[in-house]
Amino acid sequence: MNGAESLVRTLLAGGIDVCFTNPGTSEMHFVAALDAVPGMNCVLCLFEGGVTGAADGYYRMAGKPASTLLHLGPGLANGVANLHNAKKAGSGIVNIVGEHATYHIELDAPLTADIEGIARPVSHWIKTSNLSEEIAGHGAEAIAAAMVPPGQVATLILPGDTAWNEASGPAETPAFATRPKVESARVDSAAQALKGGAKTLILLGGVALQETNLRMAGQVATKTGCALLTEWSNTRLDRGAGRIEVNRIPYVVEKAVDVLKPYDRIVLVGARPPVAFFAYPDKPSILTQDGVEFIELATDGEDIAGVLADLVEATSASKSEPAGVSTPRRPDLPKGALDPSGIAAILGNLLPENAVVVDESVTTGREFFPLTAGAPPHSWLNNRGGSIGYGLPVATGAAIACPGQKVIALEGDGSAMYTVQSLWTMARENLDITILVFSNRSYKILRGELTNVGVQNPGPRAIDMLSLNRPDLDWVAMAKGMGVDGVKVDDCEGLAKAFANGLDHEGPYLIEIEL
Amino acid sequence: MNGAESLVRTLLAGGIDVCFTNPGTSEMHFVAALDAVPGMNCVLCLFEGGVTGAADGYYRMAGKPASTLLHLGPGLANGVANLHNAKKAGSGIVNIVGEHATYHIELDAPLTADIEGIARPVSHWIKTSNLSEEIAGHGAEAIAAAMVPPGQVATLILPGDTAWNEASGPAETPAFATRPKVESARVDSAAQALKGGAKTLILLGGVALQETNLRMAGQVATKTGCALLTEWSNTRLDRGAGRIEVNRIPYVVEKAVDVLKPYDRIVLVGARPPVAFFAYPDKPSILTQDGVEFIELATDGEDIAGVLADLVEATSASKSEPAGVSTPRRPDLPKGALDPSGIAAILGNLLPENAVVVDESVTTGREFFPLTAGAPPHSWLNNRGGSIGYGLPVATGAAIACPGQKVIALEGDGSAMYTVQSLWTMARENLDITILVFSNRSYKILRGELTNVGVQNPGPRAIDMLSLNRPDLDWVAMAKGMGVDGVKVDDCEGLAKAFANGLDHEGPYLIEIEL
Lengths: 515, 515
Known about the structure:
The structure is a homodimer. Chain A is of the alpha/beta class.
């Protein structure tokens, strides 16, 4: 057995049975091993941002890492933006990055690069295996590193000769780290803060947003009168009819400040003190009032389920009905011209049970929550790292993780272009994804930001840098080019019909929504 | 004047008048400054690999750097693969990368990343400007760094408050570094080596491949009987009728070893000792014979024109007619089924004068040289860094640099997908580019490599990872989706007609060649 095969067998033994791949010559022994050893679901992506984003989406829904296969430094570099997003989301990933044979590196062939240097800004764990006897053990370490709660990016670099030389066999994965218990003093502090009632906020993030954890938070809210909110971006929020309805802190600085103003004390459960996405002249970067007290009950890597149970106990909330349970309700289907609230109503009217919504709707989707809150239970995924181009890849990975569930990708046209190649993977794997592209033919968010910086009447150079027209993108044609069926709509009736068709359709379906 | 405007004015004063952009919120003050100050040609790309590759292509043809505008760490990361290629090509680029306001960084907002860490593996020069008063001076330094021969990647990081705070004005660019003269002892050594006649090779790279420099090398070849070759990948090779015909060292290891076997001594002029692109078990990584003597006459950053003139003198070759002048000749148009030699004949028959050929044809294009050698004078550009996805962006930048010249992009279908978004920029700027996509529906080079590693009968997992079928990519539909006209052909007659149409067409035109 060579090093590559020992690594593949180690991955499989460690529970890693999906590999999102974009291989090259230096990875051929690993490909041969994937071919020879049964058990790995290999999913080809035609760009590496699709690979790493899919691994992010997979972890969010499957709760365990996928592996990736990337081609040397530049292949890894193409995946870095979505690894940044995955790292911020707390998604566990095992990257396998090919490298030249150890003796070839010093010759500085064209593809030679500082792979560890490229990996460092987005990896929690990095190792280069210089011996085929070591690679299986390093692979096992990588799996364990990726499984450190809430999830970490592990990057294992595999030189060609490490892959092709003889190895003794697979390695056993070390025991996975468990979520550390939270000491009772922190529970006491939080319970104390919650005596402030309506002036106290519990800010929820990470696995606090899973259904059963949210219910406990809702019980505490009923008992103490405190408020519940989530961060603007969530890795995975379980919501819909019968679940606790929690709003997000708004994106726009002034609105966020207003929403947070009532609170003297903020209990953090898997969340962090809220800050602005960007800095602006004469606007605050910290969204809370001066002097607000933060009580960190649990970080996103700690035992959130356990500490919420403790908090229920400490606040004597175990008999309370949770606050904010969402009643089943569906808005009527709207008619006429399309706008964000019409789109939200159509989503709310048609969203199927157990849907996974991958939200990269940017400006269009800011008000989607109220009208979808009573739809059947579903999960809502946001971009945690802010690097656009996360949506189509994350939808791909989520669909691989959840074969029986409908995935709905909400995409701004600007965002979708960064990793548009993912459409092809959706078609190849016949993934059950309905894609809504909000085509406003601009980086619309930036038009507002340009006004914010004081440009009232932008000239043609600025307008051109923020516009996606000349020529307009034809999303139906691009989708067709990658084997995905689609349709273009320009009113509510058209969208409702197309969305219903997409949901009925088995496999990917793209709807271009002209705004 | 704020910091952003002082930087824009510094760039313009330093001769940088093209900016390939993909801006975000943190770059809005820079965008506003580009809007307010006349003189910068701003070219929007919908993915950052398109931005950095375009800057590479621009430098290769214009001989001076373009600037880029990138959105924080992840935006830079998306451009890293083509910066890797640019760095290996010796292309000068001034990257402007937005960053959060200095006081916002410690808050670790979603887009916060280690920008310098991301830049380091692909930059010769990096600086973060923390004061608006400093940014103009740093911009001037960046231009000078990018102009260090043969050309360097300079990355200037611009925090939001540095952009928006007051500055005093633009800075003057320091004098550009000139190419260092080569001491006469190295000329003497080379002249001595050339007494070996046919057993001596001059291996040419960098600006040695420009027309007048090649002529001097040709004179030396006539006089001494030495051979001339270039590396496999060239930044820019001037060739065609009336110019010196030089072959490249083949890509395939065995062929390269055979080609290099006759030579005892190799004189390097802007080139490096030839090594294999990849390592393979039981194949050499060093392509030359043991004991071959290398004489480095000039590195690619030294005064190559001067040292070639000195060598002509030292070998008394100034009266010699240069060897290997290509006679004007055009192959006949072939008929029937398409294969690489048929495609080469069509290229050779129709290639227009002053064409810029951007070659990312991978397996299809390995034999294109002989049949195009007698076409009218043209420039031929290769991928120096080996990271695929260089072709469409480099063609974009070359076309911006050379408005009156036809650019021809030769693309493998696998390669073209990585940065397919560049088609839109070609359409927006109405760039005169004819794109030939060789659609073999596979990573064909890897099918050969899989056989090389001993997999004779690959199973479905391996085949699927190397195939681009299921579904087939429809290049004409994708091009249409981005505003580029195109046609699909499947025989020689069809290609000849489509290529002639493309050359007559003003603006981009895509030909999908089904192989």
